[in-house]
Design brief:
Layout (H helix, E strand, L loop, with lengths): L2 E8 L2 E8 L2 E4 L7 H7 L2 H4 L7 E2 L4 E3 L8 E5 L3 H6 L11 E4 L5 E3 L4 E3 L6 E2 L2 E7 L18 E8 L2 E2 H4 L5 H4 L6 E3 L3 E3 L12 E6 L2 E7 L7 H9 L9 E3 L13 H7 L4 H13 L10 E7 L6 E11 L3
Parallel strand pairs: 6-18, 8-14, 9-20
Antiparallel strand pairs: 1-2, 1-5, 1-15, 2-3, 3-4, 6-7, 10-13, 11-12, 11-18, 12-15, 16-17, 16-19, 19-20
Amino acid sequence: MAVNIVRYSRQGSVGWGVVHKGRVTPVPGDFPTTQAFISQNTAASLRDLQGESFEIGSVEILAPVTINQQFICQGANYRQHMIESGMDPDAKKFNMIFTKARSCIAPANSPVIKPAHVHFLDYEIELGLILKRDVTQKTTVTDSNLGDFIAALVIVNDYSARDIQIPQMQFYKGKSYRTFGPVGPYLCLLEPQDIPEVHKLELVLTVNGQVRQKDSTANLVFKPAETLTELSGVQDLHAGDLIATGTPAGCALTVPSPFRQKLFALIPEGTKWKIFMQLQAKRPQYLKVGDIVEARIANASRSIDLGVQRNVVTGEGK
């Protein structure tokens, strides 16, 4: 059975605790990083944890991924999102991988700060995978051994400044402003029998109560096992690292049709991006100061429920 964990600040100290019915039972021990916590605790060892507990609302909930961990992302990884982005999911042959700055990691319910020069701030709900172990050589990961590599799940919102990311071709810069990577609230530790549910989770994102994104992890194009296999052939991965698996359709960003993209290739660079900016300016879906973004991920039975992430968009210096 999956177990929800929070990392919290209470009376000047940071701890980890098991969440049950709105109360938190502290996990004994000192775990300064997600890697340390994952390496020494499992769902099985914490499921029946006993001890003094306190109301979850009485503490400050922190991000369950600490900033020493890698923040790796997949792009255009849901079928409908690929289609609305002008791609053919049946023809795409590569897994789009990029990173976000670790300093953008923020608590689940922290404000999202919209920089003054950013006009097109977008939302992207994503399922986050937390690695269970170090992987330092090319490794074959399959659905049958996925539980050996995935310790936990989290909600991630990959906030993006589209007017930086797209015209400047800067995924890293456009997605790495401070607060652009809220994680949590829960670190959902998995047991082996929970692993098949990773492919059956529903993601829902609302802005001011209106549903903007809704899809199932069943519709991921590059699934966790093949993504981990590919990444293992490129770089070292470590226990506690975070992999965000991509976002569903419904973002504010609008992409010209393939036909228009071919036309854009024939016009001067400056004119092309001027038209792009004009198209985006017509999209009321982009986030404004005061907007409230909520993200939820769970399976149908709620045996896995990653909680609710709630962000209020604020202006710089507010």
